[in-house]
Specification:
The chain is of the alpha+beta class and 165 residues long. The chain has 6 helices and 7 strands.
């Protein structure tokens, strides 16, 4: 078994759509970033890559590469799931927490879980999405951005574990 953690944060700006967990959410601001800037999925990608020992999201999908401009982060997650599987690993579960003062995200959690599970080829019961605020503290509390934390657990064949270290 191997665990990985991921974290991502993006500033909120006008003129961009807000996408979290692959769900487009009606809001007056969206997250600034090269792709769709989905912090929840980006944190999950980094957790998976970390657990599998495969560098980080910026290495695989650099913001300097125009092919990733406005791309759906769910497509990137699908690609990462393939990399993880090709290394002999199986995703056991993913747990993510989104930190945002607004909008209220509770009504979208079910669809986020489904989207993430679909991209990973897993049952939604293996995916947890939680939402919280920062109690109006710091830049997140001031509504200047949205962040996400994620943990991923992988299992692999014994030979994969011994080869990895």
């Amino acid at each position: 078994m191997r665990a990985g953690i991921g974290y991502d944060v993006h500033p909120l700006v006008r003129g961009r759509r807000l996408v979290l967990g692959g769900v487009e959410i009606a809001f007056d601001k969206g997250m600034d970033g090269h792709s769709d800037a989905d912090v929840a999925v980006h944190a999950i990608i980094d957790a998976l890559l970390g657990a599998a020992g495969l560098d980080d999201i910026g290495t695989h999908f650099p913001s300097s590469d125009p092919q990733y401009r406005d791309i759906s982060s769910l497509l990137l997650l699908r690609h990462v799931a393939g990399l993880v599987r090709s290394g002999g690993w199986q995703v056991e579960n993913v747990d993510t927490t989104i930190v945002a003062e607004e909008p209220r995200l509770g009504p979208f959690v079910g669809q986020m879980r489904q989207n993430i599970a679909g991209a990973l080829g897993l049952d939604a019961a293996r995916i947890s999405v939680k939402c919280t605020t920062s109690k109006r503290l710091g830049f997140l509390g001031a509504g200047e951005g949205i962040a996400a934390h994620a943990v991923a657990l992988l299992s692999g064949p014994p030979e994969a574990e011994t080869e990895a270290g």
